[in-house]
Amino acid sequence: MSFCSEDLGAFYLDILKDRLYTTKAASHARRSAQTALYHITRSLVLLMSPILCFTAEEAWDIIGGGEEDSVLFHTWHDFPQMPAASEAELVKKWQAIREARNAVTAAIEPLRADKSLGSSLQAEVEITADADLAAALSALGEELRFALLVSKAVVKEGDALSVDVHVSGGQKCERCWHYTEDVGTVAEHATVCARCADNISGQGETRNYV
């Protein structure tokens, strides 16, 4: 339950939506997200099958099982493997990023409560963090804002974790809902940002992390 509600629902699926909704349909960013969701879904269906057998059977049919197949014919799902050291390092890195995201969310909430801003995407944040956390956050580059669900994120090194929040002065893109200064800069897509315009009719953006 904790994995589904916190790790999956409140974090992973939350930050994955932008990549699924805004990148090009056949892009590596979107297809890799769909592949990850397939592995997660298949694993969860197999885990629930001994208890919720009828529900699992219906879900199994939707994700690729056929009339001659049954979820009960299968054992646990085998995820793609990666070196144990790399996996441990990746878990540590994303735990740190989630710590920063929690701090950002907490800093944004008072502004949402007093109606200074609507959604978190209207916010721009400046994060002060110790050297290790600052390095982990900075490693995401421009994609940090997607992990934090804000329109702009700047990181600087300091003694302790703190977050300054500012209301963005940019315009809202009607496609991705991010607030940027480049909305309308592509003439044929006057109401969307340059990133979305590229995803609609250009080569499309590249995502490396988020």
TrEMBL record:
The keyword Methyltransferase does not apply. Keywords: Aminoacyl-tRNA synthetase, ATP-binding, Ligase, Metal-binding, Nucleotide-binding, Protein biosynthesis, Zinc. InterPro entries: Anticodon_Ile_BEm, Ile-tRNA_ligase, M/V/L/I-tRNA-synth_anticd-bd, tRNAsynth_Ia_anticodon-bd, Znf_FPG/IleRS. Gene3D superfamilies: 1.10.730.20. Residues 1-127 form the Methionyl/Valyl/Leucyl/Isoleucyl-tRNA synthetase anticodon-binding domain. Signal peptide: none annotated. It comes from the Bacteria. This is Anticodon-binding domain protein.
